[in-house]
Amino acid sequence: MSTPAYQRVLLKLSGEALMGEKGFGIDPSVAAKIGHEIGEIQAMGVQTAVVIGGGNIFRGLTAPNFGMDRSTADHMGMLATVINALALQDALERQGVVTRVASAIDMRAVAEPFIRRRAIRHLEKGRVVVFAAGTGNPYFTTDTAAALRAMEIKAEIILKGTKVDGIYTADPMVNPEAKHLKKISYMKVLEQRLKVMDATAISLCMDNKLPIVIFNLRKPGNLLRAIMGETVGSRIEL
After folding, report:
1. Residue-number span of the structural domain to which 44 is assigned
2. SS3 for 184?
3. Greatest CA separation found in the chain?
4. 122-142: per-residue pLDDT in tens?
5. Fewer CB within 10 Å, N side or C side of the chain?
6. Integer Cα distance of 74 and 59 in angstroms
7. What's the pLDDT tens digit per position in 26-60?
């Protein structure tokens, strides 16, 4: 088998990735498929961390539109990510992959607190680490949490799994004329306001020269191909 292109990666998943074709919640069969793909790269010796969103359960960003306090809404969203992290942990451990959930909000009965050196040690021991509860602070998205955690664990790349084949000049679901971009700079993403990750996350990655690959998680084998360094989806770099 070929050698992976990366030894330590951070995989960013949206909460919607776990709900599959459902309109809400978690589809256990989809969680199992994601767990299988992560297990494949872990078996190759790739140290894998995951940051997961909570949009399939509660989206804090939209709640203020209905009069809810933004900080309260964001904390509810963080708790939703913990539910998803536990579901993913279960799916991974059913595949025989030893997993730890590290939460930015202290809840020791269900997850260990995030401690940077402990998380790195778990990775070195071959465990998948799922980072939950975002950054632990309101007003920051899980995209920003992914960028922050990637820096802290010294990941070589962020792999963001989505439902489309990377970055387009427009929404390909709406505009069939939209062009696929294989490579793009951080600045162009910011200038063109492409909604692939929020501006804070993109800026953080740009400042620290951390590449990002946006790929279609729904296509089996795409995660493995990305790990092997093949051209999958779209790549954001300097």
Report:
1. 8-237
2. strand
3. 55
4. 999 999 999 999 999 999 999
5. N
6. 8
7. 999 999 999 999 999 999 999 999 999 999 998 76
CA–CA distance, 101 with 85 (Å, rounded to integer): 7
- Name the pTM for this structure: 0.93
In angstroms, the CA 67 to CA 64 distance is 5
The CATH code of the domain that includes 198 is 3.40.1160.10
The answer to whether position 3 is within a domain reads no
3-state helix, strand, coil in the chain (%, to 5): 40, 20, 40
Q: Is residue 25 part of a domain?
A: yes
Long-range pairs, 55-59, Cβ under 8 A, ≥24: 55/14, 55/15, 55/16, 55/80, 56/14, 56/15, 56/16, 56/18, 56/19, 56/24, 56/25, 56/26, 56/80, 56/84, 57/15, 57/24, 57/25, 57/83, 57/84
Domains contained in the chain, number: 1
Which of 158, 216, 205 has the alpha carbon at shortest distance from 9?
A: 158
Q: Is residue 98 part of a domain?
A: yes
Task: Provide the CA 17 distance to its chain's centre, in angstroms.
Answer: 10
Percent of the chain with pLDDT over 90: 82
pLDDT of residue 67: 82
Stretch (H or E) spanning 112: strand 112-113
**Exposed/middle/buried for 68, CB within 10 Å: 0-12, 13-18, 19+?**
middle
> What mean pLDDT, rounded, does the chain reach?
93
**Cα dihedral across residues 180, 60, 36, 126: positive or negative:** positive
Task: Examine residue 69 and state whether it is found in any structural domain, yes or no.
Answer: yes
The string of pLDDT tens digits covering residues 133-180 is: 999 999 999 999 999 999 999 999 999 998 888 999 887 778 888 899
Residue recorded with tokens 């501006």: 199
